[in-house]
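Can you make up a protein sequence with its backbone structure tokens?

===
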Amino acid sequence: MMTPDLPLELKIALARLWELLTTVVSRQQEQTPGPPPGGVLSGGMAVTAQDVLSRAPVIPDVDHESGEVESRLSQLERAFGLTELEAMCLLLALAPEYEPGFCRLYGMAQNHFGRQHATLSLLLDLLPLQRAAVRRLLDPNGPLIRWSLIEVDDPAPGTPRAHVAFRAATPVLRFLEGADVLDSALAPFVTPLHSARRCKRKLIGGGTAFEDLARELLFDERPGLLFKGAPGSGKTRWAAELLLAIDRQGLLIDLDRIVAEDAPAELLHQALVEATMTQCVPVIRCNQDVPWIRSSLRCWDDLIIVLSSADINTAPLEEGRNRRIVEIPELDTPTRARIWDRFLPERLRTADLSPSALAARYTLSP
């Protein structure tokens, strides 16, 4: 019995996968009647194909007129650009997590109860005409491995590649279940980025307006943006308001904290995957030189925004991805003093907390 609170489309996908596997099991039984090798399970109970197939999940009734929003399973496939074959591989990897009966069915389909897990061999049994494509699914540069959507077991010496077990990564399972936070280990390094209002002022000099840049992004779904400016110049605010203008959510990734951890490149990768799964735009705050950042961002395809101080080497951040560079200039000291004079309440002013003192201490953007 499948977990009752699963999203409807996931239930349907799992039930249809069960049907495909029963075809493979039936074919295996015709070729080699009797229990598969290793067919005696825990408790000394032998399990037949009929025992397994009789527990098939029921395909739920679907109301095609309900007008439901895009399911999370479809979102996941679209976000990472998965092909139908890659989506099938991912479904095979996650099915046992929601319906334990798939483990026995996998063993039966592979004609060996010791292989109660997803393998390329099992996928080849399902899709025998796509042998070449199936064998490439676990390549490091493929999306399933590259974006850490599945986890591959360390095989025993001599294990054929086709028999190596793999399973869905925990963030994928949490995303499909509707969780808002996919990886609790990332909590210290990522924060949802919100903006309470739209900004009507200009981003940079020369007459380029905020609305003009937002309009460009609406017609270019995969650009890169690099906001450069001194600390306190408003880079984060500009990013938040720009995302609000194009109706996107942002996930602020604090790279300055990540680089102090062990395996920082892996942490950044996990944060970028988290942003993609939750359909957020990664907004990376980077105020120090990070030599390895170029390789981490080079192959990232979705919209991404980087916030960087003007006094660090931003060349690695500017390469590739048609990245637009937006420099946020500082206001001069007299102008900043006038702004502080306008907004600083009289009751708070002291010799050390005056408009001129604040103007000398803090930068402001236009």
In short: Confidence is low (pLDDT under 50) at residues 40-47, 58-69, 198-207. The first strand starts at residue 150 and ends at 152. DSSP finds 17 helices and eight strands in the chain.
